[in-house]
Design a protein that fits this description.
There is one protein chain. Helix content is 43%, strand content 17%. The protein is α/β, with parallel strands linked by helices and 249 residues long. It has a single domain, classed as NAD(P)-binding Rossmann-like Domain (Rossmann fold, 3-Layer(aba) Sandwich). Strand 1, helix 1 and strand 2 form a beta-alpha-beta unit. Helix 1 crosses helix 8 and helix 4 runs parallel beside helix 5. It is globular.
Length: 249
C-alpha cells in the first residue's frame, strides 16, 4: 500500500511538467487525483498515463471561478472528501519594469495569485481535518532576476499566503506548506526561454547550480508526495527548496 492509499487529491496545472509528475506520483502512492488545466488534450493524455482508476480530468482555468466550481463539484460528487491540494498552476513571462503592461500584470497575477487563492478557498468545505495543502512558489520569489519582476512578486505572494493560511487553518490540523523549485526541465521552461537556443540557455542555468544540472519534474514530485503524506506531519508553514542548492550555497 502507498502512503496515500484511499486519499483524494487535486493537482492544478496537472497536464504537463511538475503538475503531471506530481499527479503521477500521488496516484502511485494510492491517491485518486483530480487534475485540471486549460488544455484538454494534455489532461486526457495524463489520465491515460495514470489510468482512469487513479485520475479524473476536469478542464478549466484556475483564474476562472466557475471553472474551479466545476472542479470541486466533480470532487464532491465522488463523495470521498479531499485530503491533498497541490496548487501548482502558474504562468510566467519576461517584462522589464519599462516594458510591463496592465495586461502582463493581470495575466501573471490572475493565474499565480488569484488562481492560487481561490483554488484553496473553494477547497475548504471539502478538505478533511488533517489535510495537506501545498503551494508552488519559486526560487525567483527571493532574487532579482531582470525582467522577471512581476512573476517574482506573484511567487512571493504565494509564500506569504502559505504562512497566513497555515495559521488560519491549524485549528483543523490542515497543514499548509510551500515548495520553491529552482530551474526545472519542463515545457513551461521551454515556453519562457523559447525553443530556439533552449539547450544553450539551460546549460547556462545549469552552470549556476551547485549540483551542475537543472532539475527534473519527478524530483519536485517526490517532495510534493512527502508533504502530502503523514511523513511530514510536523511540518507547517514551511518553504522547501527543490533547487539543487541554487539558493542555498
Amino acid at each position: 500500500m502507498g502512503q496515500l492509499e484511499g486519499k483524494t487529491a487535486v493537482v492544478t496545472g496537472g497536464g504537463t511538467g511538475i503538475g503531471l509528475a506530481a499527479a503521477v506520483r500521488l496516484a502511485a502512492e494510492g491517491a485518486h487525483v483530480f487534475i485540471t488545466g486549460r488544455r484538454k488534450a494534455e489532461l486526457d493524455a495524463a489520465v491515460e498515463t495514470i489510468g482512469s482508476a487513479g485520475a479524473t480530468a476536469v478542464s478549466g482555468d484556475v483564474s476562472n471561478l466557475a471553472d474551479l466550481d466545476r472542479l470541486y463539484d466533480a470532487v464532491r460528487a465522488r463523495g470521498r472528501g479531499l485530503d491533498v491540494v497541490f496548487a501548482n498552476a502558474g504562468t510566467a513571462s519576461f517584462a522589464t519594469l519599462e516594458q510591463t503592461t496592465a495586461e502582463h500584470v493581470d495575466q501573471i497575477f490572475g493565474v499565480n495569485v488569484r488562481g492560487t487563492l481561490f483554488t484553496v478557498q473553494k477547497a475548504l468545505p471539502l478538505l478533511t481535518d488533517g489535510a495537506s495543502v501545498i503551494l508552488n512558489s519559486s526560487v525567483r520569489a527571493g532574487d532579482g532576476v531582470a525582467a522577471f519582476g512581476t512573476y517574482a512578486a506573484s511567487k512571493a505572494a504565494i509564500r506569504s499566503f502559505a504562512r497566513t493560511w497555515a495559521n488560519e487553518l491549524k485549528g483543523r490540523n490542515i497543514r499548509v506548506n510551500t515548495i520553491s523549485p529552482g530551474t526545472i526541465d519542463t515545457p513551461g521552461l521551454d515556453g519562457v526561454v523559447g525553443t530556439e537556443g533552449a539547450s544553450v540557455t539551460k546549460s547556462q542555468f545549469a552552470a549556476g547550480i551547485p549540483l551542475g544540472r537543472i532539475g527534473r519534474p519527478e524530483e519536485v514530485a517526490a517532495v510534493v508526495a512527502f508533504l502530502a503524506s503523514g511523513q511530514s506531519s510536523y511540518i507547517l508553514g514551511a518553504n522547501l527548496y527543490v533547487d539543487g542548492g541554487e539558493k542555498q550555497i
